[in-house]
Amino acid sequence: MSSTNGHTSQPKGVSAEIAHERGYTYVKSLAQLNALEPRFTDPQQRTPALLIPQYRLGADGVHAWSERPEHPRIAQGGKTIKYEHPAGVPTCFDVLPRYQPSLADTTIPIWITEGAKKADALASAFGSAIVPINIGGVWNWRRRETSGASIPHPDFDGIAWAGRQVTLAYDNDVTRKREVQDAVKALARYLKGRGATVRVLVLPDDGEKVGVDDAIAAGMTTDTLRALLRNVEDLPRPTESEPRPRRWLAEDEIDQLRPPMWLIKSIIPAGEVTMVSGPGDTGKTFILLDMAKRVAQHYPVMYIAAEDASGIRVRKRAWEVHHHSPKNGNFLMWSGVLPLFDASEVDSFIDEVRALGLRMIVIDTLSQSISGADENSNGDMRIVLEHCQRIAHETGASVVFIHHTTKNGDTFRGASALKNDSYAHLEVSRDDDLIRLECGRVKNSAPFAPRYFKLVDVATDMADEEGAAITSCVIAPADRVVAGDTLTRNQMAMLGSLLLMTDAQGGAATTELQTASKLVGNSFYGALKRLRALGLVDKGEKRTDPLYITTAGRNRLAQESDNPEHHQDGVTINVAPPFEVNTRLQLLPLLP
């Protein structure tokens, strides 16, 4: 523990002994800050500040230093960032070294809280009677993988949980904030699944936010803290800051509801939520950017570039150059992530954009925007979709989110609620250089006929560091397809391989067919999906049954072989007219 110029590094409620072991350090200069923790980004480097070391269980020394600046930065939406964590450094379960040997002893209760100072206040009050663990935030018991999946933190595995008493000691807003209570209940379910007994600390709530460190600093004893423990099931329902408005409608009011309308005719419903799914590198972003720029010719649009803001800039400029359409100020970008699982972040977003008159909001991608949620959990995804619906209904904008498919490309990744709770679901696939956009489902309307596109290279008027023009792509309607769906080269190669394997061994496993056809990634899965949809390839009811070529597939392969006698004359049809924006929406009021 150190101090500078009269600034104490001993937080309230924390004993001198525990503060010394923790090693709180007050720094005044950037040089002092970077000497201890050089991994903060430029916006995070703010002095003077209190630096707080974290000790990951099972590791030697300091895992990372978090920062509590005296003058914190303000993020988008007006949220104050009280604590900074070094960019790119994984979170950890922070346990003071003296307590780490006790993690294997299930007779010693564990108290989990959301900050180092809170954990140290518990250590100061309880001594060796408990093991305090700092997880750093209400949802930080989950971690985002590079694949986009949210999983329980791996540090759980270093602790013995079965038969152990665990207390969740979050702040007193657990009784009034739904998102905090959701986090508590989800963590409690997980810990119970690992055999622990879980209770929740419910601190008195008079409207001012109070943590367990505040309570201990104010003189609350350990006996009083224990008396405030409750079963998770007994938590009071979150209070409302304002009385709820009447939510039921009289029959006359029902008749005044406006009918469903389109933002992009037959494709994107106005003021509702649409999911667009497809494998990687199939053109999803190019399609959505084309839609967004066409809508922006008439209305304001917000593009949330959670993955690649600079790439969107290049693609936007390529669209403008290709279509000879200069920018008009309607295409807005939210740089960074909008955490869709965090109700307070969603509230801030709505408040910030409500007055912009947005008619379309694109979220690219969903997996980057659901930190803390499990995309395979219907419960978590229903919360995410509820937040998307709130954004749509309170702003009047169509909310369209981009999502990935599973590895084999058969279906979208994650819980079924993503599709069931969306108003519409569009699917994008690619075979060779042909991009296919089709309707998976849409409420209150018949699905549109599939549309086909190709990517066209466009040299922008932007230059790289060597002065060369930066090139990107735009989608263009496929010039023609043959009625009856003439097979592509990839599809023909796959059918030919499967014919031989069906005759030789009754069919092929997916991996065997992939090896034989010499197709990989989207080329393989896109071709297989299309052949199965056409009835040319099938498999048995069991998951382990092999794929085989059908009689229709044999006939089709013969017809479209290299023998000219088997070629069919096709009919050229127009399959992908430009997306048509409904220009009458500005005459309609926003939804109440």
Note down, in words, how this protein is organized.
The chain is α/β, with parallel strands linked by helices. The protein has 3 domains: 16-234, Dna Topoisomerase Vi A Subunit, Chain: A, domain 2 (3-Layer(aba) Sandwich), CATH 3.40.1360.10; 262-480 and 579-587, 3-Layer(aba) Sandwich (Rossmann fold); 489-573, Arc Repressor Mutant, subunit A (Orthogonal Bundle), CATH 1.10.10.10. The chain is 28% helix and 21% strand. The chain has 16 helices and 25 strands. The strands form 7 sheets. Strands 15-14-16-17-13-18-19-20-21 form a 9-stranded mixed sheet, sandwiched between helices. The chain has a 5-stranded mixed sheet with strand order 5-4-8-9-10, with helices on both faces. A 3-stranded antiparallel sheet has the order 1-2-3, covered by helices on one side. The longest helix is centred in the middle third of the chain and has 18 residues, at 378-395. The radius of gyration is 29 Å and the shape is globular. Residues 104-218 form the DUF3854 domain. It comes from uncultured Chloroflexia bacterium. InterPro entries: DUF3854 (IPR024385), P-loop_NTPase (IPR027417), TOPRIM_DnaG/twinkle (IPR034154).
